[in-house]
Amino acid sequence: MSDTAAADPTVPMAAIDAADATDTIVLPGVERPSGGTPLYGLESRGVSAWFGTHKVLDRVSLTMQPGQVTALIGPSGCGKSTYLRILNRMHEMVRTAGLAGEVLLDGEDVYAPGRRPADVRRRIGMVFQRPNPFPGMSLYDNVASGLKLAGIKVSRDHRDHLVQSSLERAGLWNEVRNRLRTPGGSLSGGQQQRLCIARSLAVSPDVLLMDEPCSALDPTSTRRVEETIAELRGRLTIVIVTHNMQQAQRVSQSCAFFLATHDTPGRIVEAGDTEQVFGDPADPRTADYVNGRFG
Ligand SMILES: Nc1ncnc2c1ncn2[C@@H]1O[C@H](COP(=O)(O)OP(=O)(O)OP(=O)(O)O)[C@@H](O)[C@H]1O
Predict the structure, then answer these.
(1) Which residue's alpha carbon is nearest to atom 4 within ligand 1?
(2) Which of 39, 58, 107, 200 has its CA 20 to 30 A from that of 67?
(3) Domain spans of the chain?
(4) Which atom of ligand 1 is found nearest the CA of 84?
(5) Is the pTM of this model over 0.90?
(6) What is the ipTM of this complex?
(7) Which fold has domain 39-290?
């Protein structure tokens, strides 16, 4: 997006283009061919965000390396979720939302004129805090719905293959392979979250955004989702918001610490290798936060 377009942050951004929801993209195959497929990183440059006149993020620049897990940490209200939603153009679905800056996927601005939000969201998927499968829909259809929602048509055989491979990559296949026709609501919370991950993977995204994906899960399910994240690493780029410092250290290779104060919008205080951010932080505020002294 241009700074000019966002000069008046009170001007609502365009809502999702109706055509995006209905257009159909026909792809011969959407799964990554094995080997040799490039991985794409994500980069934000000078991203600022508003809700109405309330500025919540200020010039956030961050590189999220291809094939790595980047954790976004920081106290409640510092703008982590807003930032995540900016990365795949979900922020603009809020009527009062405004923003400035650039988000580059594979070097191209996802807000470039003519770029369709639905295409951006297919390449940059999102998993939410609370598992949100369609509870009455079968496990198979839940995963296949990712394709349908993205307007991707595939043959029956190819769909079967995609459903299986997505469930495998989400670490759920062995648990559900014999009951694909049972409803999504019949799974445990942790299984539901992995089902939602499988649904996101079905459209073969380049990036997966995860907004506190384990905060509604018990420790065992949390571990299982973390294993899934570890298995996905190297196959796509992952950005995860988490309040759990141990989780950030377990799953991520890079980390960014966000901070807002009562009169300043959220900014990145420090970003770098997770080991360094936790083990030898450069800023005393980072040290205080990662050691549990505030937030
Ligand atoms: N839809 C919205 N309308 C108005 N203000 C919003 C909206 N969503 C978020 N905000 C405000 O934006 C700021 C950043 O919120 P955000 O949810 O991004 O922070 P966060 O760091 O993810 O917090 P948490 O860790 O508690 O989820 C907060 O002041 C919040 O009140």
Answers:
(1) 51
(2) 58
(3) 39-290
(4) 18
(5) no
(6) 0.98
(7) Rossmann fold (3.40.50)
